[in-house]
Specification:
The complex is a heterodimer of chains A (about 90) and B (about 425). With about 90 residues, chain A is of the alpha/beta class. Chain A has a domain of about 60 residues. In chain A, about 25% of the residues lie in helices and about 25% in strands. Chain A has a three-stranded parallel β-sheet with strand order 4-3-5, with helices on both faces. Chain A is elongated and about 65 Å long. Chain B is of the alpha/beta class. Chain B starts with a strand and ends with a strand. The chains are: A alpha/beta (about 90), B alpha/beta (about 425). Chains A and B meet through strand 1, strand 2, helix 1 and strand 5 of A and strand 1, helix 1, helix 2, strand 3 and strand 5 of B.
Chain lengths: ~90, ~425
Amino acid sequence: MSRLSVLSPLGTAAGGIKPLARRRGSLRGLRIGILDNSKPNAEVLLGRVAELLVERAGAGPIALWRKPGASHPATVIDEVVASSDVVLTGSAD
Amino acid sequence: MLGTDAFAGLAEAAAASLGMPHLQLAAVAHPIGGIDPKLVRAKAETVVDRVLEALTRDPSPPLAASVATVCAVAAPGDLDAFQDFAVAEGWSDGLPVLPPTEERVGRILGRLAGDRTEVIATLVPRQGVATLEAIAVNAALAGALPEHLPVVVAAIRALADPRFNLNAIQTTTHPCTPLLIVNGPIAARLGINAGANALGQGHRANAVIGRAVRLTLQNVGGARPGREDRATLGHPGKYSYCVAEHEAASPWAPLHVERGFRAAESCVTVCGAEAPHNVNDHGSTTAEALLFAIAGTAATTGSNNIYLGGEPLVVLGPEHAQTFATGGWSKADVKRAIWERARVRLDRFSPENRERFAVIDPARFGDRLLADEVALCASPDDLMVIVAGGPGKHSAIIPTFGATRSVTVRIEE
């Protein structure tokens, strides 16, 4: 079969790899932040997972922030980072 | 990061586009929303061990990100076999595409070939770099001609404006896609249809310009259907959605002039739009009478605009527009009258939705009586009105994603 040279329509992707925060060995006594994206029941799932982390791993206290809508970036990131040791957030319906 | 299994691909793509492909995801069975909170609490039990592990153990370092470039690829020379190849590569929208050979792409770039590496925009969610050349490759796939490229490039520039909120439009479950509205002399010169069947098929310029934008968003922007593009249903305009305003048939200033451009300038406006919803009114002969059907069609409980705001679009057929103009109404009069009449009583929303909308927009949904009404969008100025179409007594309501603003840019030729 004959072959044809074509250009890929994907182009390049910007970016690179960023380091993640170093994980702690234990959650005991660590402040859990919840960033609720305001999707229905997001707070229920994230909140229950946080409760379970308190029960099972001795984490706590828990603090909650809520984005006004799921489709915009959070404006409270700096505050969340300053006030939490670990943060739970979500993406889904 | 927590999510559901159905949305895991989008969450992974979002993390990767932010340079964190190694961010751990803990997924529960879909869905979370629209079910009894007790069931959601039970789902937390299924995922807590994974969350605990993710928070206490460093993830493996990622492999170097694979970066595709505008590079030459060997493809089948046979046109039918090329379709299978394009679908397999994820380059196609399902309709036949034309091979983007270097020669065809060069022809589309024309005198811009020397600027082929110029970056027009970075497109989310992939953070894809939309160079002139990358856009031209997608235009070539779509069957566009060299003269169409400036409209496509201007549209891509507009889509990357932060007010448009492209990341949400690209990845939402809502059925929206950029609608391109072309104003100014370029529309007639390129044969972009504004008349009969303006939102339908049959005109090459409308078809290939809209399609080139869609393919650029899919390929460069990385919104692959069913993967990062999470549309529950989508709509047929996602293949191509491009119209010109019928300025000659409009009694009022065209859209781009409303937005501060000169009539002689050519512009494209992008809005994150649903499919058109028809307004059939063959009977009404006055502006006041015509409002019933238009406002009735626009006021719906399931619209994004009603609780997220944004700018719903009213496309008036020329005969309906003339009915308003004969009554002495300006475009601003039409917008205000539709806004005042297109209202939904709060008791037409479910209790769950009333509660949710009151959190999202307390000013409009909080502390209200069930007999109170809310308008189709936040203010009359948010309504967009254009004139398009041929003879006949039809207009269309086009709701938008809501958390998006339309953006108008000049087309540089």
